[in-house]
Specification:
Number of strands: 9
Largest sheet: 9 strands, antiparallel
CATH topology: Immunoglobulin-like
Number of helices: 2
Radius of gyration: 18 Å
Distance between the termini: 51 Å
CATH architecture: Sandwich
Number of domains: 1
CATH superfamily: Immunoglobulins
Structural class: alpha+beta
Order of helices and strands: HEEEEEEEEEH
Strand content: 35-45%
Shape: globular
CATH class: Mainly Beta
Helix content: 10-25%
Length: 134
């Protein structure tokens, strides 16, 4: 019994730092974009003039996007454009094209299989809109 308790205590001490590190990164951009949250979802939007990429996580765990869908509505200078993003592997949705991003607000509608639909809002400044790294 003592051996079992010692083993459990050791395992708990090894897991705690990993959980603390995951929580420490919560809400921080991992791909050079902007992070928004809705309930348990976190999404990071990396907006470049030629590509929009959304990375989706739930409590810091990547959510597979296969079979899902996403749409981003860009609002800039009184103009509105809607962009469909396709699953792009792992936890990403992506669209390629030509996007007007300076001073833009973005609204993302997400449908991830097995999860409720979510809407997230992003405000893109010039630094994030044109220089986000992938």
């Amino acid at each position: 019994m003592k051996h079992l308790l010692l083993t459990l205590a050791t395992a708990a001490s090894l897991i705690a730092p990993a959980a603390a590190l995951a929580h420490e990164d919560h809400g921080k951009p991992q791909h050079g974009g902007i992070v928004a949250e809705a309930a348990h979802y976190q999404a990071e939007l990396v907006a470049r003039p030629d590509r929009l990429t959304l990375y989706i996580t739930e409590h810091g765990t990547p959510l597979p996007t296969a079979g899902g869908s996403a749409k981003v509505t860009l609002l800039a200078g009184g103009q509105k454009s809607e962009v469909a993003l396709a699953p792009a592997g792992d936890n990403r949705f992506e669209a390629k094209g030509s996007f007007n991003l300076g001073g833009t607000k973005a609204v993302a509608n997400l449908n991830v299989p097995g999860k409720p639909a979510k809407t997230l809002r992003f405000a893109l400044d010039d630094a994030h809109a044109s220089h986000g790294k992938h």
